[in-house]
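Hey team,

Filing this mostly as a record. A colleague (T.K.) asked me to run one chain through the structure pipeline before their review meeting, and I want the input and output archived in the tracker in case anyone asks later how it was produced. No errors, nothing strange. Just documentation.

Input sequence:
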Amino acid sequence: MSTLTNLTQERRLVTAIPGPKSTQALKRRTEATSGGLGMAIPVVIERASDAILLDIDGNQIIDLGSGIGVTNVGNAAQRVVDRVIDQVQAFTHTCFTVAPYMNYIEVCEKLNALTPGSHKKKSMLVNSGAEAVENAVKIARHYTKRPAIVVFEHSYHGRTNLTMALTAKNMPYKEGFGPFAPEIYRVPMPYSFHWVGNQATITEDAIDMVTHKIDKEIGAHNVAAILIEPIQGEGGFIVPPKGFLPALAKYSKDNGIVFIADEVQTGFARTGHMFAVEEEGVVPDMVVTAKGIAGGLPLAAVTGRAEVMDSVHASGLGGTYGGNPIACAAALGAIETIEEENLVARAKHIGEILGSSLRELAKKYPVIGEVRGRGAMQAIELVEPGTKNPNTAAMSAVVKYCQSQGVLVLTAGTYSNVVRFLPPLVITDALLKDALSVLDDAFASL
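Output structure:
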């Protein structure tokens, strides 16, 4: 067993952001890496533990992004590290479809047990969220013998050709990368903050719009799957109104459509449930997971009804690296950490602190149009005061200020005006409150 020397869980700046060493290293980055790769904060990381990132200049930065919702159990979590070291020393790769190994099976057993529903389930493992979504679509089409896939406005499902087609926002995800995969149909999403109809009937009206579009423009009998994020991630942490997901699930069941929940960003305790669909008791036919599944190592999964998952012929699924044994070891360590440290409850507690603090900021600063989210997945949408018009300049200024003070926050939103918060679920109350005080200062500086 390894013994980690954890960083002190406190914000500490010894240079400006970026410091001189990061500045020099980022020049090398520019020379060596594709210009198509973005960067949220201009520092180079040397070490990390729990909710602190240490850059090469010695600055300790509060991480409110978790590597885009990946390090739910904290960075370099002890159980993850221990299992990874043990596995690396045992063997690094055989390819599961060549010579199987136990921890792939164990991860699938865990997923089958943890995902919603008491029905018989089976799983498969791949490398990334986009790859998992692609496989879910593949399986749904094979099972139903139907071509059409229904997705939603403001959705994000990945950067491969198919998942770009499934994704709503053009820039930066789709611009210039077409033509895209066919038989993808987009339907309205009830985005409450920008909903022009009656808020009191938003669920019923949205369901009517969705089902009418499917019935009249696609034909429900042609639809293989309805694919939705229970809380839309890159779209801006859009939370569907109560009753929307259950109604979609029922419509899917009534029409023989596979209902797929993309839990890539919402899964593994992030929202105060192990999976976000549990909030309303929704039981999907298939669940797609990634990000928080393996504590920072590349792993993703498709878990679904056994009859759906078994409908594909032998060797119709797979991939050389899918379910790599090291990543599987990390997943077992991450799941154990979530269970042993009760991170589902911890996410709810973080959500209470985040939500109340952000709502207080919204009372002080009219540039904050809405606070939304669930658990440790919260966001604020920034607007021109007195309107709902997007305020991208304010978003950029707030993010830049937070970075300068050693707090990493991420952006999102169809209209590029959302600041999102995805802290590790092991962040201390004191560290979270320190970060939120910096956020307050950021708005005061506008």
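Quick notes for T.K.: The CA atoms of residues 83 and 329 lie 5 Å apart. The first helix runs from residue 20 to 32.
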